[in-house]
Amino acid sequence: MFSVKGYEFLIFVIFVVDISSALYFHIAETERKCFIEEIPDETNVIVNYKVELYDPRTGGFMPSSPGIGMHVEVRDPDDKTILSRVYSSEGKISFTSHTPGEHVICMYSNSSAWFGGSQLRVHLDIQVGEHAINYGEVVQKEKLSELQLRIRQLLDQVDQITKEQNYQRYREDRFRQTSESTNSRVLWWSITQTAVLILMGAWQMRHLKTFFEAKKLV
Amino acid sequence: MIYWYFTLLTFLLVVLNVFSSEITFELPDNGKECFFQEIKANTTATLEFQVVTGGQYDVDVTLQDPLKQVIYQQAKMQFDSHSFTAQRTGIYSACFSNEFSTFSHKIVYMDFQVGEESPLPGIGDHVTALTQMESSAVDIHKYLNLIIDLQTHHRLREAQGRKRAEDLNERVQWWSIFETVAMITIGVTQVYILKNFFNDRKPFVAGR
């Protein structure tokens, strides 16, 4: 029916077409936009984006705006920057998490406009874990049969689920620690409060007693 | 040959023109955030959202079709999901608004799923019936997807609970420090004010 070469071409076309059909939103030229991804460790994240600049002459958005660059910053749960770079108006960023938790992905244009500037339309697609795997590439590289590929996908999914479960344990542990800490704080505080009240009362009484005696009021 | 490419290309583009965007974003106080998505006619789409932290965990949601007609609108919802079939091709918008809240900033999770999941390359276009092995593999795949979905929900609920617990912990700490200081100050000032009454008798005399 069709040659292998034609098939590669198809995959390529689909891959290129992909991002324009993604979700998009608008930001001002100087605005900073952040997204949070709560992910387990050793998880792959792929961010695809495309920026279009508002064109006041046509009232639409320019499909390509070579002048615009996007600054992409990725921070891990300990607030350490794992990626910070300026990319062109269209790009694909991928990173692997090393600590489980909330990863923050921030984007802002390198525009020098001080007062708002014009509007930007940002197409964004964030794929995490097994969604980030491009099975088109896997097929080409490893020459798997349909069934093998399907099983491969199942394995990837199970792998992701296991990671998520491990992460869940980790978070549950943190949650419990917080609760234990609250519990002990409440306990210790009530003990301290009682002690302070008793000491305060005793001191007040003694102090006033000596005072009244000195003043010969009693 | 060329003809084949084109039929297949259009077919694949239609099938593969599906998107699931999972996004977690911050919604500032008094803020409004809109997301847009192009949907082809007769495609089923699902919008799911959940407020992870902030305030009463509620948000206003509006879903509009290309003609700006409201398909779905909810005020102060904590979480929900809404499925619809697109009546016409065009840009659909989903807006999350926090305009009713003046001081609590929120974190909202959103999943906008359009169409069915794209088939694996080489599998979507095959015509013969699936073997038992293949169909059970497909079933397992579906169930695993379900598990992943449920896990996401669980994770978000857990995040809600955990964030609230962390908040509580911090509040307990600050409140106890504050109250200890308050108790000591009140205790000491009480005594000194009382002593002052007896030291300085003039106001009493004048009062009588």
From TrEMBL, chain A:
Keywords: Developmental protein, Membrane, Signal, Transmembrane, Transmembrane helix. This is Transmembrane emp24 domain-containing protein eca. It comes from Sitophilus oryzae (Rice weevil). It is a single-pass type I membrane protein. Coiled coil: none annotated. Residues 32-128 form the GOLD domain. GO terms for cellular component: membrane. Its main location: membrane. InterPro entries: Emp24-like, GOLD_dom.
Automatic annotation (TrEMBL), chain B:
It comes from the Eukaryota. Residues 1-20 form the signal peptide. It comes from Sitophilus oryzae (Rice weevil). The chain crosses the membrane at residues 174-194. The keyword Transmembrane applies. The gene is LOC115886751. Its main location: membrane. Belongs to the EMP24/GP25L family. It is found in: Endomembrane system; Membrane. The keyword Transmembrane applies. GO terms for cellular component: endomembrane system; membrane. Keywords: Developmental protein, Membrane, Signal, Transmembrane, Transmembrane helix. Pfam families: EMP24_GP25L (PF01105). It is a single-pass membrane protein; Single-pass type I membrane protein. Residues 32-114 form the GOLD domain. Coiled coil: none annotated. This is Transmembrane emp24 domain-containing protein 7.
